[in-house]
Design brief:
Length: about 425
């Protein structure tokens, strides 16, 4: 253990500060864990002291679930080692590592696995909820690339889960979030992807928006798996494009130029590591944040029109499909694999005086689009009910697993699956 921190200790405020500056909670104790044994000790300590337990990796959960008021925060950030074996294309990643650490260690060998778009996001929370990134259409979600997990369960045991060991737990950890224990090690499958990427963005006047977005949606159906389509709409401009990982990627450019009257075009070759960090500053810490998310399994014209009709409210869309949809629905807890696009509407600001207006606006916007949505990504759920992420049969199976591994709901500061009452 690198130490227990309490109010007033050096490092305490840094440890309790998370990505969303709206979160200002004060844990009674922060356990800075450096090893699996530290995590076992922390879980046992929290339970014997009757403290509410939360688990922190990257601290990017929008609702700040990693920080308990007056409870025990199990801070995994000292556990950030990543070991890569290029021969077997495997990475062993400790439970507190950030995506940037995984990417950097893997790219030494031209390898990578699916990781999110911002390098200071935690491997832990992202992977346990699914993990969407620029490689997902080729290789599946981050969770689809986990070969094994090591975790500390609610009774302080150290357990492994893989296809051959505790297979039901392995199922649940791939999408079921932090419900089943504290993951101390992820073993990932890596892929040879090289070090190159291409980003392409085309902007059009909003007056052409409906045609552009319809064309973009239809083009996406035939898009190669190397391309992940993106769109940004805020009522004043429409920007569509794609991210391509690997060599090539230019062949799609003419089709985008034909979608409408292009005002600006930005086609950029970059390295994979630059791609993975290009949003780090925009998505930096320090700001107050709020977001709402939807999945769309079809994107009807009415939904597109609703996005265009809301000046000043931004919507970012990213395409799913490809290898994500290849995985059978019952193979992992992660659900809604038939998603065509994920949409997030997000806001950042600095003054608490703006909180209410900002939040109300995004809630209203999300409500306008809700009739067209097919669910939501568990890692974007904010105050939304858990059944937006999981269909009833998956939820039942998750509840049974939770009841087996954490009957007292020790790990409840997460996208919580409530166990059956004892
Ligand atoms: C700037 C930004 C960019 C993002 N980009 C993407 C993206 O590209 N793709 C994508 O899929 N998602 C993305 N997300 C969403 C992201 O997946 C979630 O916010 C996720 O919760 C972040 O995990 P974390 O470890 O950083 O957060 P934390 O707040 O530290 O953890 C969130 C929860 O995860 C659980 N948890 C974390 N680590 C462990 C562990 N080792 N063992 C057990 N439980 C654990 C805990 O329940 C914890 O409450 C992004 C979020 C942000 C803020």
């Amino acid at each position: 253990m690198t130490g227990f921190l309490r109010k007033g200790d050096a490092g305490y405020d840094e440890a309790r500060t998370v990505w969303n500056a709206m979160i200002d909670r004060r844990p009674a104790v922060v356990a800075r864990c450096a090893t699996t044994e530290d995590v076992v000790a922390a879980v046992r300590f929290g339970r014997t002291q009757g403290l509410e337990i939360a688990v922190r990796c990257g601290g990017h959960n929008i609702a700040g679930l990693a920080v308990p008021e007056d409870g025990l925060m199990i801070d995994l950030t000292p556990m950030n080692a990543v070991r890569v074996d290029p021969a077997t294309r495997r990475a062993w990643v400790e439970g507190g590592a950030m995506l940037g650490e995984l990417d950097k260690a893997s790219q030494e060998y031209g390898l990578a696995t699916t990781a999110g778009n911002v390098s200071h996001t935690g491997v832990g929370g992202l992977t346990l909820g699914g993990g969407m990134g620029w490689l997902a259409r080729r290789f599946g979600l981050s969770c689809d690339n986990v070969l094994s997990f090591e975790l500390v369960t609610a009774d302080g045991s150290v357990v492994r889960a893989s296809a051959d060991e505790n297979a039901e737990l392995y199922w649940g950890l791939r999408g079921g979030g932090g419900n089943f224990g504290v993951v101390t090690m992820f073993e990932f499958q890596l892929h040879q992807v090289g070090t190159r990427a291409l980003t392409a963005e085309f902007s059009y006047p909003v007056s052409a928006g409906l045609d552009v977005l319809r064309g973009w949606r239809d083009l996406n159906v035939e898009a190669p798996r190397d391309a992940t389509f993106t769109a940004f709409v805020d009522g004043t401009q429409v920007v569509v494009g794609y991210v391509w990982v690997g060599e090539g990627g230019y062949d799609l450019v003419p089709a985008f130029r034909k979608l409408g009257p292009v005002q600006n075009e930005l086609v950029d070759e970059t390295t994979y590591l630059q791609l993975q960090t290009r949003e780090d500053n925009v998505q930096g810490h320090r700001f107050r944040r709020y977001w709402k998310g939807h999945y769309f399994d079809v994107l009807p014209d009415e939904a597109i029109s609703a996005m265009l009709d809301n000046p000043g409210v931004p919507a970012s869309l990213q395409a799913y499909g490809g290898a994500i949809a290849d995985v059978p629905a019952d193979a992992t807890a992660f659900s809604r694999r038939d998603t065509l696009f994920e949409m997030v509407t997000a806001s950042r600001w600095e003054s608490p005086a703006e909180d209410e207006e900002r939040i109300t606006r995004l809630r209203g916007y999300a409500a306008t689009l809700a009739p067209y949505a097919s669910g939501a990504y568990v890692n974007t759920l904010n105050e939304d009910p858990i059944n937006r992420a999981f269909p009833p049969a998956t939820l039942e199976r998750l509840i049974a697993l939770k009841t087996a591994y954490d009957p007292e709901n020790v790990f409840h500061l997460n996208q919580n699956i409530k166990p059956h009452a004892a």
